[in-house]
Design brief:
By secondary structure, the protein is of the alpha+beta class. Helices cover 46% and strands 14% of the residues. It is elongated and about 95 Å long.
Length: 185
């Protein structure tokens, strides 16, 4: 199964270029095999892409813009669908691929299915990773420690000099009340 990413190598739109680069960069970084299919320099690629993007995914003018992603002949989706799948950590299902061992994405007992519009149903996926849970716990503990430190730092503690004076000459209740009144003024 080969992932095909239809791109326009000579696009004048910086938005399209950025989207194409994001898709291609992600696939390369995750070592997912794919082919770039240029629609700017190859009329057959452009025609095939336009004919195989489902009607509901085509814009009002009927001409889908790159990048468009296919697994062989099966339509996976456009950039927005890709981005959503990436954010939901279901990219392998989106691409119609089995997740490699050790990844966070796993299929449930019910096989995942692509919806007719190319979107992937997120309700049929489960993300399990105990290390991720423990990382969250560690982060929460770190935040708690930071909060304790912040509270401790916000309480004005007597300096060593003041502590020594107190040991030599304990403060009476009257003196303490006077100090509090002065601080409030």
């Amino acid at each position: 199964m080969v992932i095909k990413v239809f791109v326009a190598t000579s696009s004048g739109s910086t938005a399209i270029k950025k989207k194409q680069q994001e898709v291609v960069g992600f696939l390369e970084a995750n070592k997912i095999d794919f082919k770039q299919m240029d629609i700017a320099g190859d009329e057959d690629n452009r025609k095939w892409m336009r004919e195989n993007v489902p009607g509901e995914k085509k814009p009002q003018n009927g001409i889908p813009l790159p990048p468009q992603i296919f697994n062989e002949e099966q339509y996976c989706g456009d950039f927005e669908s890709f981005f959503s799948a990436k954010e939901e950590n279901i990219i392998y299902s989106f691409l119609g691929l089995a997740p490699p061992p050790g990844t966070k994405e796993v299929k449930t007992a019910e096989e995942t299915s692509n919806l007719p519009n190319g979107d992937v149903s997120g309700e049929e996926h489960k993300v399990v990773d105990e290390t991720e849970k423990s990382e969250v716990t560690e982060q929460n503990e770190a935040h708690t420690e930071d909060n304790v430190d912040a509270v401790a730092n916000s309480i004005e503690l007597p300096s060593e000099e003041q502590q020594e004076k107190e040991e030599e000459h304990p403060v009476t209740e009257e003196e303490e009340e006077e100090q509090e009144e002065e601080e409030e003024s």
